[in-house]
Amino acid sequence: MLFKLLIVFLLPSDCPGLPFYNGFYYGNVMNDRSYRNGNGEGFFNGVKLVVETPEDPLFTHRGANVTLPCRYHYEPALTSSRPVRIKWWKLGENGAPEQDVLVAIGLRHRSFGEFRGRVHLLQEKERDVSLVIHDLRLQDYGRYRCEVIDGLEDESGVVELELRGVVFPYQPPRGRYRLHFHEAQQACEQQDAVVASFEQLFRAWEEGLDWCNAGWLLDGSVQYPITRPRQPCGGRGLAPGIRSYGERRQRRDRYDVFCFSSVKGRVYYLEHPEKMTLAEAEEACQKDGAHIAKVGQLFAAWKFYGLDRCDAGWLADGSVRYPVTRPRPNCGSLDPGVRSFGFPDKESRKYGVYCYLQS
Ligand SMILES: *[C@@H]1O[C@H](CO)[C@@H](O)[C@H](O)[C@H]1NC(C)=O
User: Fold this and answer.
1) For residue 317, what is the domain's CATH number?
2) Which residue of 34, 103, 119, 267 has the lowest C-beta tally within 10 Å?
3) pLDDT recorded at residue 335
């Protein structure tokens, strides 16, 4: 589902000028994308081992169970089966280290780290060594290598897994440009999200994200997406695009952050007779058997469930927002988006609350 939407926020300082930018424009990134998952082939004794994985990325969402297809065969075909060892690992990208996922010999397998207990081989048919991952997490997107080891031969293929999600810029209550890189990671986690990758920000920009404050990305670079060039955001002369400050010093420089979240569970505006303080709002959600929603959860509900509500409500971080998919008079700007009132006085009784129910 592609949204051609502009995300517009009502913040006190509407699009403050940026101190500098390098005008980098990533217009051709999508064309340059290469998937290194050519099918692997290897020879032994005149027999070729061939590993097959899909060329196209798989798209799925958080919480899903997904199967990463991988099969192998021999050419010419062998009548007897041969013992092989299978290894799945996740490629290190975007500053993340390579991770072992699973190793299998026959029916025995072992999984590692974050994947322990969440993965197994499908093994529905002979020579099908597809990997099943349960209860996908936000960090699970990326490229996975399926390696088949037959004696001295080993061949592999790559499967790319992408999560459907939403990218949103985040500023903490203390204001603009306050986060070192590791604080940015914590800030996203507290919103039930992770720091967005460049690819995720790029996709969000294609879908219309326009934001005039620079934020950290997963690879340690600092960038911002512009769909409508204008004077305070790098000038009118530049083409729309993602503007980059390049890599910044992670412990010294402070920016906002772009977070990535994906849908899991349900967000709703609590029908409640009175407006509440932040503490009362938290309590009201708990009484309703839920929790006060986090920013990432509200964005995901807006994007994936079309949550549309013209009532401003508290969120867990103390911000007040409301999601609009069908813009209309007296409901903020004319673009769809999650509107923000920033971080009002926690004691003020002017707002309702958005609650989150885990599925
Ligand atoms: C994933 O698989 C588990 C175990 O088979 C099952 O209990 C769960 O409902 C599945 N989840 C989804 C989203 O299909």
Assistant:
1) 3.10.100.10
2) 34
3) 86
